[in-house]
Amino acid sequence: MRNEIVKEDAVETAKNTIIAICIIVGVITLIAGIAVAVYKYLTPDYLDDFDEFDDDFDDDFFEDGADFTEDVAPAEA
């Protein structure tokens, strides 16, 4: 009879330990999730600045429809 009580106590202690570990992991996960959400909310999104970027750099050097053959030396026959 005493062995049964000891076994029940050991099983109950193991269950309590597993439940405590699960609660600790859950709380840590919850805190990490809240921290990530707050970080993403407070961090500015710098990529929005580049959405409207129009590359006009090439337009300064090359005109559309320009004839580039004028810069080529004529072939000697």
Tell me what the structure shows:
There is one protein chain. Helix content is 53%, strand content 0%. By secondary structure, the protein is mostly helical. The longest helix is centred in the first third of the chain and has 41 residues. The mean pLDDT is 78. It has one helix and no strands. The relative contact order is 0.05. The radius of gyration is 36 Å and the shape is elongated.
- Gross morphology is elongated
Unreliable parts: none
- The share of residues in helices is 40-55%
Q: Quick check: average pLDDT?
A: 78
Strand content: under 5%
The overall strand count is: 0
Query: Helical stretch count?
Result: 1
- The string of secondary-structure elements, in order, is H
The span between the termini is: 117 Å
Please give the radius of gyration in angstroms.
Answer: 36 Å
Structural class call reads mainly alpha
Question: Main sheet, how many strands, which sense, barrel?
Answer: none
Summarize the structure.
The protein is mainly alpha-helical. It is built from 1 helix and no strands.
Please write out the topology.
Layout: H1 2-42
What labels describe this entry?
mainly alpha; 77 residues; elongated
